[in-house]
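Attaching the record inline, Q. Sequence:
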Amino acid sequence: MASLILISSPNACSITTGGNLRRSKHSTKNFYYASFGELKASQEKRATQTEYNHLRLQQSSLNHYYKCIEGGSTYQQYTRKYVLKAVPRPSFDFEPHASDPKNILDSVKKLLVAFYWFCYPYSMIGQMLSIISTSLLAVEKLSYISPLFFIGVLQAMVPQLFMSIYMNGVNQLFDVEIDKINKPHLPLASGQLSFRTGAIIVASCLTLSLWISWIVGSWPLIWNIGLCSLIWTAYSINAPLLRWKRHPLLAAMCIFATMALIFPITIFLHIQTFVLKRPTVFSRSLIFEVAFMSLYSIGIALYKDVPDIEGDKAFGIHSISARLGQKWVFWLCVFLFEMAFGVGLLAGASSSYLWIKIVTGLGYAVLASVLWHQAKIVDLKSKTSMRSFYMLIWKLLYVAYFLMPLISQGCH
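Structure, as predicted:
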């Protein structure tokens, strides 16, 4: 501190100390040099210390920088690892598409389509047309066709509609494993409907059918529903003394009794006695329908097992097709169908009206020709071809149902 003062005020020494000027100058000079040396050394030391501190500061900054870089790399790597781990994790958020009205509508459509095929629509349509056709057989005069008549027809159709679902459904419930081989497209066999759902549908339809027929109060209709339910339960259910479909003769008799006897007779009597309040009379037109349907129903009973021979053999159902061969049974069925159309042609020719003879004659002749032509091109090795012919059999029957009431007008 003193040297700094002396440097800044050189004359202060002489004033303060006094004495010999030379000595003073010499002393001042020596002191000056000494002080300057110390100052220079101090400055160099400070410069060195400053430089050293500066270098340390730079190194510290560099180290901090590198640490930051390393830390950033580590953070980025950690972030990348986190993202990779987070992507495949399942999300538990609510998914709005699950309740999308479009998806709900699609599910409802699929359920309705499955229910449609569960009901065997071709069989159901045939039964409804049978009711209409048979009801018209009881009409002897046009005055009989009234609102009361249509109500009577509706009273027969509604319980029989539910009975048709029961008849076809209960058969599928006990044929699920067989259908997986023979008819894998059916709702139960394909899994579109569960067994529980099918059982609920079947039980509900049986209950509704019996209840509605009892509410209507027509005894012919009650007998119709009661007999059909008993026969098709025995036909399908796998229980002791039941499962009649395993026996070819009993299986054919079930279909014959339903289509050729129960349906025509009970529906005819329902309209004639319950609706029109007329005495019980079996007309010639009813006898014609019974004869026609006897041949046609036996043909259907035999033919329905022709495409299913593989599954029937696998589960021990010895149908006539499995015993006698597909080709032999196929042409036997064609012969029965052609005979049924021949009965219709003869019945139409016996009518007292010329226009009925012409219409029914041409109609049954065309049906017989179409059947024969298609029978010749059926491939018995193809299930698709055989099932297509089976659908044709039902379609030809639909047309025949429309021709039957015309014949009845010339048979009364």
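The two ends are 152 Å apart (CA to CA). The mean pLDDT is 78.

More tomorrow.
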